[in-house]
């Protein structure tokens, strides 16, 4: 797993880890500071960056930042899942897209991102308004929808093609 610079800074802040330039040298003087009786922990014993540490406000910020970076791909994935072509998808589909393109979210974290008025009477979510609310990029989202309106009917990915595209995003 590779951390972005922002995630690494967040990790440093949470763990209290501060690396000085002198600590990263691999020379004879720096190696003398560890005596032979000192046990050196394995990498697996270090505390890991746990997503449970992220509070609700930060979850919204993390998802919003990731959405801002990958907005076009997220919109395309949501359009592919919108079989009725009405701008609405099931909450579990939205959750899957956010997990793949943005940040892994538990059910509780996902439900915190949703507002009660996000769901319509049939239990669907208008993903356009959801994206606008989280990203505040009204114009860009409208452009992404308008640019592809003519191609919308041509873009008829089946579920297998969508799964392949989503898996490619995960392993990049």
TrEMBL record:
The lineage of its organism: Eukaryota, Metazoa, Ecdysozoa, Arthropoda, Chelicerata. Residues 131-165 form a coiled coil. This is EF-hand domain-containing protein. The keyword Coiled coil applies. Keywords: Coiled coil. Residues 1-36 are annotated as: Disordered. Residues 1-32 have a biased composition (Basic and acidic residues).
